[in-house]
Here is the input.
Amino acid sequence: MIPWELLDRALIPGTDKELVLHKRGGDYSIRLDGMELMTSRVHGSEEALAELACAPVAGRTAPRVLVGGLGMGYTLAAALSRLGPTALVEVAELVPEIVEWNQGPLAPLAGRPLEDPRVRVRQDDIAAVLRAEPGGYDAIMNDVDNGPDGLLLQENAYLYSQAGLALTRVALRPGGVLTVWSVGPDAAFTERLRRAGFDAKEVRLRDSGGRRGRRHTIWVASLP
Here is the structure.
């Protein structure tokens, strides 16, 4: 078997945690503490995160959407494919090396979405972006960790808390949509979404996009 090749390392700002980029043949993997966060082998649920968020708002005039976490660019590319030429798609990415990887070795994987003129990268924590943009977005996609019950970085817990959901609600326009990716279900988080004023439902799907592969959860939470 071909061994994994270490390509680069990146320290997550404000933490002592390190992301590691590996390659094996044509496959890429980003890991944290030895655990695989994302891979180029399967990415169906990352694409579904964008499709479920953008489909309800794609017909709006100049929709503005926010992708929380760049990853390998699959969510961003799916959002761009759903939206028209007048859309603005912003990406909140805290780790500068993630952006560099998506401009370098990872760029071809999702079709070089960072080169799309509709894209604006904001190198910042998504919570800071949300605070700066009340009523700013038609849709928000949150994929900054493994979900409310599978956190790898405790610093991300705020986004899944009642206060974090209230902040997200304020950043959405009327009729806006929030989608949240998770490695698994969490009934308590569904209830928090509803308490925050969202009409929330869980969507369970396989990461491969077919009948096989790991099941993941996406919350689709909409505002009146």
